[in-house]
Amino acid sequence: MTLDALLARAARRLLEAGSPSARLDAEVLLCHALGVDRTWLYTWGDREAPLLERARFEALLAARAAGQPVAYLTGEREFWGLRLSTSPHTLIPRPDTERLVEAALALGASPRGRLLDLGTGTGAIALAFASERPGWRVVGIDLSPEAVALARHNAERLAIGNVEFRAGDWFAALEDGAERFALIVSNPPYIAADDPHLARGDLRFEPHGALVAAEQGLAELRHLVVEARAYLVPGGWLLLEHGHGQGEAVRDALAAAGYGEVATLRDLGGHDRVSLGRHAEGGTGGGRS
User: Fold this and answer.
1) Could you tell me which residues are annotated as the binding site for S-adenosyl-L-methionine?
2) For the chain, does the N or the C end have fewer beta carbons within 10 angstroms?
3) Residues at the annotated binding site?
4) CA-to-CA distance for 212 and 228, rounded, in angstroms?
5) How do residues 220-242 score in pLDDT, each as one tens digit?
6) Transmembrane ranges (predicted)?
7) Tens-place pLDDT, residues 56-87
8) How many other β-carbons are positioned within 10 Å of the β-carbon of residue 149?
């Protein structure tokens, strides 16, 4: 069987299994099994599929048909042009989160400063920002030691040196009263426990604790809004990713906590995605470096 024929059959199987991106998933898995990129696959699709690689691909295909995320099967996902290692201990980086990176870069235009990424997971947000702002010092924190180890691995593999990762529960990993940041960003848990999406797609396999929060998904967002003020420099910004129906609630929380210039930004799909507010005590500096 040629690679083209194998790919077409695989795409049909994934489509029947309910994959929303069946052809792309099949291509990515076949490339992974063969150890090639998609350009090679398009060029040499008329070649016969090698037996060993075909068997490896069939195993990956079966796992994907059962619902396992492509990013966990291949062990990697691209985010902000960076190829990141992934694992079931962390959320899979998603394109919507790049909106948070864009906003942080726009606000963090100073040549030097400090950024804090809470709930860093693979390190995606921290590494994307650090790669664009080499003069900044970036700190990423996650409750999961496995996530911290993975984020450090990604930083080393990508040779991004202006970032460090620590294990801890939100701000507990910081030196109390001694560390301040010009930007604090987070993609925290924000899905309600009874949300039906948790039983669908990739979410079924991602770590529950990184997805679900109390108070209809708002508990961690509200906690960060209140606590972040003590770790922001005057004029510093807090930026939070959230669900598309939570913009108003997060804006209300920011305003109630005394932040100024509160706003919500939309993602490429036109949905509320990132809400932000500024520490109201004046100043626009980039923070200590």
Assistant:
1) 119-123, 142, 170, 187
2) N
3) 119-123, 142, 170, 187-190
4) 20
5) 999 999 999 999 999 999 999 99
6) none
7) 999 999 999 999 999 999 999 999 999 999 99
8) 15
